[in-house]
Specification:
The protein has 157 residues and is an alpha+beta fold. The chain has four helices and eight strands.
């Protein structure tokens, strides 16, 4: 099953049925801001999430074709809803206390290819097609910018 969000975004797989139900319910609720009005994250997805004390879930961002880890961000339910329903990654900025859609100011857009929830419900894996650098330093990956730490390498017996 697939569910068409707009002319450029198609959601495929098992999530499509959930998104279709969520989108139908969202349209029925209206489009107001705050007070529980407007679109909300599908309840079936929301109940599987384990939020931290600030209501956030870690989101590991990975390039979809080479599987390189690009960055880690944080999402609340609304940021995840926006990510699932728009085809673009949206985070909750812990420092600015606001939503930010990756690439709106830098042009380094992240186009969503897939989103998975880990077994504990406390982390998301967001596979993206990254345009340009993922890191605010200009590096392709935030882990390039941070660099490796010294480590004793383990060996299998």
């Amino acid at each position: 099953m697939s569910f068409m969000q707009d002319q450029d975004t198609t959601i495929e797989g098992p999530a499509a049925a959930d998104m279709e139900r969520s989108d139908t319910a969202s349209r029925a609720e209206g489009s107001g801001v705050g007070g529980g009005e407007g679109p909300v994250l599908d309840a079936g997805i929301a109940e599987r999430l384990k939020h931290d004390d600030m209501g956030l879930v870690a989101a590991v961002i990975q390039q979809y074709d080479d599987h390189r880890v690009l960055m880690v961000g944080y999402m609340n339910d609304e940021a995840l809803r926006r990510t699932l329903s728009t085809g673009r990654v949206t985070f909750w900025s812990r420092s600015r206390q606001e939503y930010w859609r990756k690439g709106d100011t830098s042009g380094h857009v992240q186009y969503v290819k897939a989103v998975s929830l880990d077994c504990d419900g406390d982390a998301l894996l967001v596979e993206v097609d990254q345009v340009g650098a993922a890191c605010h330093t200009g590096a392709r990956s935030c882990f390039d910018a941070g660099g490796p730490l010294p480590v004793v390498v383990g060996r299998r017996p």
